[in-house]
Amino acid sequence: MHQWSKGIWEKDAPAAADAMTSRERVRRALTFAQPDRAPRDLWMLGTIPKYRKAELDAVLARYPSDFVGTPVRWGESAVADGVIGDVGFYTDEWGSVWEVLEEGVCGEVKKPALDDWSRLRSFAPPFELLDGIDLSRSYDFYRQTDRFVMAYSSVQPWQRLIFLRGFENLMIDLGEERDELLALIRLIHEYYVRELTLLAPVAADAIQFKDDWGTQANLFISPAQWRRLFKPLYAEYCRIIHDAGKFVFFHLRRADLVHLPGPDRGGRRCDQLAAFLHGHRRPGGATQGEDHLLGRDRPAVRAGLRRAR
């Protein structure tokens, strides 16, 4: 049995602190098995390596990440155009047009691909990306690192709906729950199920999907509607990943954690979310959300980080 197929709930005998690898450290944190310290990672905007590389390298040299992404190749898009993060316009793989006003960020959708429901009948997801998937490089890569290896999917059903319909249109759609909306949810979900099924054999410890469900205070929709329309989607994503012997990482934001139902309900455990809620901490180990710490002075940021240790 390949090492990456090992059951995610298996726990090895404790290792000496100085002998613990990053992979073991993260696995122990996720399974509450006494890691030597909290795992760490560093996320950043794309402009940081470009303009602050020396400072970034110094931080990573002192505090190296316990995580690393695995090399996965996807097929070439038939419609994507432009560069994400460059000021101006670009078209994503699903056909929506975005505008970027500040370098390094993804921008906002300016022309949703399905702003008119009349286009739905002829619309198709970008299956060419899945048809060209290549996992071959991931196997040697996994054997050559002792870090916790992540495989990143494009799965984000809620945000994809926003990108395809536009936020205002989608809010009206959800209020009416019209047949076209339900058909689009099924279409997006079937695409993501296929993506995760193809990605599942990758040599990795975990597979990540994401969605941005919260404002600064609440969910975008009612919890009841979330449970009825969206929770079953995430449950199936978790089942596919768990059946492949991998951890589930669900990238959420601050308000999402406060208002979404618990990670263990429905029989499908989100491992990363469950681990952090178990310790009453936010993802990333912070006790305060990024929206609270950003813009604060250095002593306040340092105090928040110390409380997260």
Describe the protein.
The protein is an alpha/beta fold. It has a four-stranded parallel sheet with strand order 1-5-6-7. A three-stranded antiparallel sheet has the order 2-3-4, with no helix packed on it. Helix 6 crosses helix 7. The N terminus is likely disordered. Helices cover 40% and strands 10% of the residues. The protein has one domain. The chain has 14 helices and seven strands. It starts with 21 loop residues before the first helix and ends with a helix.
Short description:
The chain has 309 residues and is of the alpha/beta class. The protein has helices at 22-30, 47-51, 53-62, 127-131, 136-143, 157-165, 167-176, 179-199, 223-229, 231-243, 254-259, 271-278, 290-293, 298-307; strands at 67-69, 88-91, 97-100, 108-111, 148-152, 206-210, 247-251.
Please give the structural blueprint.
Blueprint: H1 22-30, H2 47-51, H3 53-62, E1 67-69, E2 88-91, E3 97-100, E4 108-111, H4 127-131, H5 136-143, E5 148-152, H6 157-165, H7 167-176, H8 179-199, E6 206-210, H9 223-229, H10 231-243, E7 247-251, H11 254-259, H12 271-278, H13 290-293, H14 298-307
Parallel strand pairs: 1-5, 5-6, 6-7
Antiparallel strand pairs: 2-3, 3-4
Helix pairs in contact: 6-7, 8-10
